[in-house]
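for the recovery benchmark. tokens below, seq after
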């Protein structure tokens, strides 16, 4: 089954490490894409660090919710290459999610918002926060056979002091901007399942 694993990095790099520097709250953040047999996509976000130094949203009634990005939240931006339209997905460790359609850069198209219910699972232990989500094929943009989707993975990490760190595979702008298309550097075809 096709799989891609990439490291995300913070928009603002931490200060140089000295012997007096405490370890970072997040040492590493990985994102992994898996193709599913039905043409859907599994995304796994794995935060290696100290969950005690993060603000992780408490479990809530699973369902759609807006404003998830204001706290620890994992995001995927998915588009068909060459088209301005794209989709944004937000996933909270609380079990809540959101899906939005855009007709072009930051221009919402509420009529085309994807209707879906993802399968989500969140685990927290002494050194990890892991969130796994499965998106059905119907939630993804449609592409012609042989064309891969353009994907950007990102995360907002809320630290214990309430500040927010912005993580992505690539940060193309001076300010954090997950909607910036140049940050979507992954190419993935969820339909390419090996026999």
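predicted aa per position
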């Amino acid at each position: 089954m096709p799989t891609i694993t990439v490291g995300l990095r913070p928009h603002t790099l931490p200060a140089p490490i000295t012997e007096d520097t405490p370890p970072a709250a997040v040492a590493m953040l990985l994102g992994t894409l898996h193709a599913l047999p039905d043409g859907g996509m599994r995304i796994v976000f794995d935060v290696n660090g100290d969950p005690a130094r993060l603000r992780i949203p408490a479990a809530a009634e699973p369902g759609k919710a807006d404003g998830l990005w204001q706290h620890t939240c994992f995001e995927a931006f998915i588009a068909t290459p060459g088209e301005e339209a794209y989709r944004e997905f937000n996933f909270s460790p609380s079990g809540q999610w959101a899906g939005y359609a855009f007709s072009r850069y930051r221009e919402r198209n509420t009529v085309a918002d994807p209707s879906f219910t993802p399968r989500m699972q969140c685990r927290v232990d002494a050194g990890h926060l892991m969130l796994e989500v499965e998106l059905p094929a119907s939630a993804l943009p449609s592409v012609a056979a042989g064309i891969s989707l353009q994907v950007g993975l990102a995360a907002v990490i809320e630290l214990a002091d309430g500040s927010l760190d912005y993580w992505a595979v690539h940060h193309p702008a001076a300010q954090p901007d997950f909607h910036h298309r140049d940050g979507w550097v992954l190419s993935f075809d969820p339909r390419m399942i090996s026999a």
